[in-house]
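User: Need the bound-state model for iron/sulfur cluster:
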Amino acid sequence: MLTTPLIAALAARGPVDVVTTPAGAPLLANHPAVRAVIVYDKRRADAGVGGLWRLARRLRAARYDAAYMAQGSLRSAALARFAGARAIVGFETSGGKWLYTRRVAYAKDRHHAERLLSLAEPAGSSGAGTSPLRNLGIAVQPRLYPGEAERTAVDALLRDVPRDGAPYVALAPGSIWGTKRWPHYAALAKRLAPLFRVIVVGGPDDAALAAEIASAAGAERIVDATGKLTLLASAHLLARCAALVTNDSAPQHLASAVGTPTLTIFGPTVPAFGFGPLALRHRTEGLEGLPCRPCDAHGPHECPLGHWRCMRGLDVAHIEDAVHALLHS
Ligand code: SF4
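Assistant: Bound-state model below.
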């Protein structure tokens, strides 16, 4: 998702093909800046050196002028080399940097979407401060393009929801990292439910969190979308919502890609890492002044200090106020 501004900038220069994982490929459906999506299934169909070589031979036929390494592994760099790309551009901090023809500074002070966009900057850019591409008006907001299939799936999900005029507010309570899951979503849903239709978004693993929310707020006020939609259809669902409340996880980027106002709750991580929301209307909340915070680039599964104060200490009234402030911003 955060690569889409880079893709859009490169598409202004020529056709762009994207090599991505089986999970990432469907997200790029309908994207007007993408000529072709090429799936690299490194765990199954394209596993091992043989799979890498077969894909490289296929790519070689397209005679690419350049490969931009949004994914910095040595394997990706080797794929670009074997594919014969004349220029290979990536970050100077990446594992595959030895195979690049140009290394770009990894600007820690920028949002990651802007860092990725900086790969398209002309050689000699400093990598510090505001991106020259941004100065030229190139948008750093990610963009996704849900289509008819996604609209149909969301219509089906919402078909039986009473049309009482209540705006939809989405909650994304999950995260693969345990300490990034704010523990008070059920209490927040209970407070929001009289005013809003609360939609819980997430994957199949988040169904238990959705059930907990429905039990606290009343099942009739909740729409459980967990595990029921593709990522692209989830983006379309978020486009229909007045706001999203989420942890520091993927749904905030889906919301940014469709412009839905977003409130992101940060615990062990901070927005300064470069992965915060990019929707034009957004807020971030986190417990300021906690000396142990941030404690990890991703967020550990368990709090190393045991108290998990970074999330437990963010009380529900504070977040509820922030939701209303976001909606009225
Ligand atoms: S160490 Fe601090 S920042 Fe890390 S999980 Fe625990 S309370 Fe949160």
